């Protein structure tokens, strides 16, 4: 446990990136930078607009707080660069970052581990539409496998909507899959240094918890305490830790899940560089656990010593 800010040395908060989530990352990064600065940490903010190697070439730092969401920051690429440069960084390593960024392969790992995740169907092109309908029925949610913040996702209630959803998701140039729609309540559990934080239940009037609901809407409701009894919440916390461990996640992360109408908990995805904006869920869970935003940021930075 680090007690003095100087023990961290010089810290670079890497933010921005070139992925679709760049605006969110800049907001997260600004909040993290301010929190570290307020605690006396020697910190600089680095907006990565191109190569991370170029961004770090003219500065001498002892460690990195990575808050670049999405491709290039959350997918093992930045982690590989920092590994080669010998710079310690927050969060998961190369393998866990790359694997967790790929929602489809994360589901395959969870399934192999015996964990429950909604059924899915890989959509390579329009010839997969009818077999998908046959397997999953409607409604479904269509997702690009390598995007976060619900980018490129849409709900389909019929064949025409499924075709349009595939076209939208295909623009993100990665695997696209349809996932069986889960009717139930949505939860998220943050994991910090091997400990699960209080669960949050999400409610939105939107079709699903999309980008607008996450970052802009005032109609999204966050329940923390989540309304479950102690035993049920403990189950979600243990599941979040198991799901994280199955894909090698370390440091910090956020696991999204549903409890369906039959009471079965279904894993949806895991985020290894979760948002840290004023709308974000990890700070909300940390607050319920008695941690201020500043304490949370400090604890995340401590994961760079892992």
Task: Give the key terms.
306 residues, alpha+beta, six-stranded antiparallel beta sheet, four-stranded antiparallel beta sheet, 11 helices, 36% helix, globular
Description of the molecule:
This protein is an alpha+beta fold. Helix content is 36%, strand content 22%. Strand 8 (184-192) and strand 9 (195-196) form a beta hairpin. The longest helix is centred in the N-terminal third of the chain and has 17 residues, at 22-38. It is globular. The mean pLDDT is 94.
For the termini, the CA-CA separation is 11 Å
Percent of sequence in beta strands? 15-25%
SSE string, helix = H, strand = E?
Answer: EHEHEHHHEHEEHEEEEHEHEEHH
Oligomer: single chain
Give the fraction of residues assigned to helices.
Answer: 25-40%
Helix-strand category: alpha+beta
Tell me briefly what this model is.
With 306 residues, the chain is α+β, with helices and mostly antiparallel strands.
Question: How would the blueprint of this fold be written?
Answer:
Layout: E1 10-16, H1 22-38, E2 42-48, H2 52-56, E3 63-66, H3 77-85, H4 94-101, H5 103-112, E4 120-122, H6 129-136, E5 140-144, E6 154-156, H7 159-170, E7 176-180, E8 184-192, E9 195-196, E10 200-203, H8 211-215, E11 221-223, H9 230-246, E12 252-260, E13 265-271, H10 281-288, H11 293-302
Parallel strand pairs: 1-2, 1-3
Antiparallel strand pairs: 4-7, 5-6, 5-7, 8-9, 8-10, 8-12, 10-11, 12-13
Helix pairs in contact: 1-11
């Amino acid at each position: 446990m680090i007690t003095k800010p100087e023990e961290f040395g010089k810290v670079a908060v890497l933010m921005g990136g070139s992925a679709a989530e760049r605006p969110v990352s800049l907001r997260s990064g600004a909040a993290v930078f301010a929190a570290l600065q307020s605690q006396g940490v020697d910190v600089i903010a680095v907006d990565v607009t191109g190569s991370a190697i170029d961004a770090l070439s003219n500065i001498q730092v002892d460690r990195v707080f990575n808050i670049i969401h999405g491709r290039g920051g959350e997918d093992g690429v930045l982690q590989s660069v920092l590994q080669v440069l010998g710079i310690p960084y927050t969060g998961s390593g190369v393998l866990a970052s790359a694997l967790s960024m790929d929602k489809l392969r994360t589901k395959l790992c969870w399934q192999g581990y015996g964990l429950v995740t909604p059924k899915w169907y890989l959509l390579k092109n329009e010839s997969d539409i009818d077999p998908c309908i046959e397997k999953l029925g409607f409604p479904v949610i269509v997702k690009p496998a390598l995007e976060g913040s619900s980018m490129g996702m849409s709900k389909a209630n019929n064949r025409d909507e499924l075709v349009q959803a595939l076209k939208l998701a295909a623009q993100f140039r990665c695997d696209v899959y349809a996932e069986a729609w889960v009717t139930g309540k949505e939860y998220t559990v943050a994991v910090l240094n091997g400990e699960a934080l209080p669960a949050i239940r999400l409610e939105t009037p939107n079709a699903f918890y999309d980008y607008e609901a996450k970052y802009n809407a005032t109609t999204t409701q966050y329940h923390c305490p989540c309304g479950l009894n102690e035993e049920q919440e403990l189950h979600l916390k243990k599941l979040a830790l198991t799901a994280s461990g199955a894909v090698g996640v370390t440091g910090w992360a956020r696991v999204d899940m549903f409890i369906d109408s039959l009471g079965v908990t279904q894993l949806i995805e895991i985020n290894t560089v979760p948002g840290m904006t004023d709308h974000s869920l990890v700070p909300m869970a940390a607050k319920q656990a008695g941690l201020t935003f500043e304490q949370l940021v400090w604890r995340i930075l401590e994961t760079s010593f892992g």
